[in-house]
Specification:
Distance between the termini: 57 Å
Oligomer: single chain
Number of strands: 6
Number of helices: 2
Structural class: alpha+beta
Length: 138
C-alpha cells in the first residue's frame, strides 16, 4: 500500500488557503515547514517581504478577532496544521495581513466568497420525464 501522494519520508503534506481581502492563494507545504518559510512562499507570489507579513490561523470562519497570530519559528505542525486538518479537498485557512507602516499592520480582513449566479432556465433540471420539444411533437 503506497501513501506516496501525501507522504515523503514520513513528513506529511498540508494544504492551505492563504486569504487576504479578495485574494486567495492555494498552496501545499510539509508539516515541518516553518511559518517564516510559508511567508517566503507568499513573498514569491505577492512580492512582499516576510517582515511585512503577518499570518493567522483561522479559529472560526466569522470571528476574525479570534484568529491566532502564527510565530515565525513554529512549524505548521506546531500550529495545528496536519494532514488531518488541512487536506486537499478541505484546505486550512490562513489569514494574511500586511504592514502599513513601521509600527502597524493592517487589520486582518477576508472577504466572503461570491455566490455563483442562478442557472439559466435551459440549464435547470427538468421536472417531468419529457422535454418541451418532445411534448410539442406529441
Amino acid at each position: 500500500m503506497c501513501a506516496c501522494a501525501t507522504q515523503s519520508w514520513g513528513v506529511l503534506d498540508v494544504f492551505l488557503m492563504i486569504r487576504r481581502q479578495k485574494t486567495t492563494i492555494f498552496t501545499d507545504a510539509k508539516e515541518s515547514t516553518t511559518v517564516y518559510e510559508l511567508k517566503r512562499i507568499v513573498e514569491g507570489i505577492l512580492k512582499r517581504a516576510p517582515e511585512e507579513q503577518r499570518l493567522y490561523k483561522s479559529l472560526s470562519n466569522f470571528a476574525l478577532q479570534d484568529d491566532q497570530l502564527l510565530e515565525d519559528n513554529k512549524t505548521l505542525g506546531d500550529c495545528g496544521f496536519t494532514n488531518q486538518t488541512a487536506r486537499p479537498q478541505a484546505p486550512a485557512t490562513v489569514g494574511l495581513a500586511f504592514r502599513i507602516n513601521d509600527e502597524m499592520f493592517e487589520q486582518l480582513q477576508i472577504e466572503a466568497f461570491s455566490s455563483p449566479p442562478e442557472l439559466p432556465d435551459v440549464m435547470k433540471p427538468q421536472d417531468s420525464g419529457s422535454t418541451a420539444n418532445e411534448q410539442a411533437v406529441q
